[in-house]
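Is this the right way to post structure tokens for a design question? Let me know if I should format differently. Anyway, here goes:
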């Protein structure tokens, strides 16, 4: 279903709700049995009747996101405003709740509901969830209620959610997903029956798109089942924490020159590696996994301040969850928490990817790197004595590793 048709559909539902009619965006039986609408809430007291009547979601993202006083929250596809009004109540007078919707009729309904509820800290914006009309790093929490599945460009939606979140911000949505591999025609019939116009993402693909956008600490919890592998679900993720004025995101090809310059500066210290010259970008990317690569950058200038990346230790399947990593920080930005933030984000992303062991080697003289790694759970498992000559001097290398306590398929 095209975006224009979806907007027309929900605009008509908004007009029905404003006129006092009961609405549903799927069959009545599916709506009731699937716990769509207001059925997932337990705190609707004092909300306008029209806001409750216009609820078309598949969960309670306000509860999922664990909103706190003073936070700024954005609801993607806010409809009649029920989740915005509940969010405004949770974040309090010092917080802010934004609702974003592409339907002018839904926005008009939501604004009337907010006025009736006296929600002075609620604001409704006109726009699409693929192009959010808010600045970078302007909200603490992104929520949504059974709307992302309506988008034909879900990667763009998740990228926009990541963009507008501040470092450390949370993503907590209710959505429709698929799991398993049932008959595609039957699955499509279920999606149509429950109003999933653009098709639901498989759980694995949802996780992949979240990770590609830069999110970490990924959790997708299936809730109500609708048949043939289609489920309502709670989807939770977080944007990496970062020092003030910085942000962590996936590494891109246009970071090449800055990443390699930082690499070379680290090699020039004589304490980072036996290597003395940074490789070409082609060599860099060929030697490292295509995922699990991140940079920290200055949000004011865009300058890359540090990077972290991973390599496989072996092509043998038994070592699929074992990687080796490198982390480098610009020499003018050390002792500012950038290395710690990068490594913390890398560990979290590794756990999401099923990594159970992260390894590396550190020169024995590199006390700062050793202290950083030990602070984040790495341990020294051995020393390779006089393993190689560096600038004419025999060097010892400490072997360090970190075992994930969270990955289920890690070895005993």
């Amino acid at each position: 279903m095209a975006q224009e048709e979806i907007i027309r559909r929900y605009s008509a539902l908004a007009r029905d709700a404003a006129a006092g009619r009961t609405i549903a965006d799927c069959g009545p039986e599916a709506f009731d049995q699937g716990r769509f609408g207001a059925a997932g809430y337990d705190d609707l007291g004092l909300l306008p009747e029209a806001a409750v009547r216009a609820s078309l979601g598949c969960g309670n993202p306000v509860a999922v996101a664990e909103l706190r006083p003073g936070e700024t929250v954005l609801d993607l596809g806010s409809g009649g405003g029920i989740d915005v009004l509940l969010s405004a109540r949770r974040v309090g007078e010092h917080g802010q709740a934004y609702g974003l919707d592409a339907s002018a009729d839904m926005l008009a309904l939501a604004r009337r509901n907010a006025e009736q509820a006296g929600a002075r800290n609620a604001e409704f914006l006109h726009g699409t969830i693929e192009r959010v009309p808010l600045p970078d790093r302007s909200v603490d929490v992104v929520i949504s209620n059974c709307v992302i599945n309506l988008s034909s460009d879900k990667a763009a939606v998740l990228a926009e959610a990541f963009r507008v979140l501040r470092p450390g911000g949370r993503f907590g949505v209710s959505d429709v997903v698929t799991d398993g591999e049932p008959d595609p025609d039957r699955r499509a019939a279920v999606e149509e029956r429950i109003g999933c116009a653009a098709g639901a993402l498989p759980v694995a693909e949802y996780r992949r798109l979240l990770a590609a956008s830069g999110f970490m600490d990924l959790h997708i919890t299936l809730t109500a089942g609708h048949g043939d592998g289609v489920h309502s679900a709670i989807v939770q993720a977080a944007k990496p924490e970062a020092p003030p004025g910085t942000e962590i995101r996936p590494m891109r090809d246009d970071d090449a020159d800055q990443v390699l310059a930082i690499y070379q500066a680290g090699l020039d210290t004589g304490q980072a590696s036996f290597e003395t010259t940074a490789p070409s970008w082609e060599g860099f990317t060929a030697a490292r996994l295509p995922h699990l690569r991140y940079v920290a950058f200055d949000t004011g200038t865009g300058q890359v301040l540090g990077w972290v990346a991973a390599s496989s230790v072996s092509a043998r399947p038994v070592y699929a969850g074992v990687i080796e990593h490198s982390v480098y920080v610009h020499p003018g930005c050390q002792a500012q928490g950038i290395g710690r933030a990068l490594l913390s984000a890398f560990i979290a992303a590794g756990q999401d990817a099923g990594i159970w062991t992260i390894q590396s080697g550190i020169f024995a003289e590199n006390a700062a790197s050793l202290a950083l790694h030990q602070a984040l759970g790495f341990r020294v498992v051995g020393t390779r004595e006089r393993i190689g000559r560096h600038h004419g001097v025999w060097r010892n290398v400490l072997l360090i590793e970190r075992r994930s306590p969270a990955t289920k398929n890690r070895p005993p």
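Format looks fine. Someone answered above. Worth noting: The longest helix spans residues 3-18. Confidence is low (pLDDT under 50) at residues 27-35.
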